[in-house]
Amino acid sequence: MKPFAAIALAAALLTVTTAQAAPAEPVEVMIVGVFHMSNPGQDIANMESPDPTTPRRQAEIARVIEGLNRFHPTAIATEWDAATVAERYPKYLAGTLPVSKNEVVQLGFRLGQVSGARTVYGADMDGDFPFEAVAAYAQSHGMGAWLEGAMATVQAEARAAGERLGRGTIGAELRYMNEPARLALSNSFYASALQVGGGAEQPGAEMVAAWSARNYRICARIIQESKPGDRVVVFFGAGHAYL
Description:
By secondary structure, this protein is of the alpha/beta class. Helices cover 59% and strands 9% of the residues. It is built from 10 helices and 4 strands; from the N terminus they run H-E-H-E-H-H-E-H-H-H-H-H-E-H.
């Protein structure tokens, strides 16, 4: 190969390599752990949530949305499945969706409309949560005190959250719930559950593995939906936020 040709080839390869190595614009993500505004009763312990459609609570939600909109989101991820959001969000924008107390509508859809986000989508994924097996093993293997303590803790926190909301605002409760120390404390239940089991029978580990698998699948959905330069707001139950 002639020297000039070798130099030209090297320059071309350097150009290709440099283009391939150029980093994409980062994706910025704001995770907002929320409580279930519509009181679906699907958690181990469920708080009493005030009606978010009253004038007082609507004003509080408006202030929350105003604050979150300063993040300038381009994408909103919500705790519904993809098909449900794809079907309901256009109706919300058109003003034809029936009034809903659900936080996906009250927070996710509302922020999507106000911000003009590129996309509002459902990121939730199905998953098992075999807590019954954990409770049964604990009761039958002398771990009833652990079970009672764990249940008392989560139930006390649910009651306290309801009381805080009764006398405070939705914004204040969301701020409280998303303090790093609160998120870590909430997640500590799963580490504690690992002690429930013995030998080949490991219901605690299986429950934690199932919970983690669901959260990894949710995380995968958010990654796959994100585009370079996106600013993503993720609205999910606060129990998911730590993972």
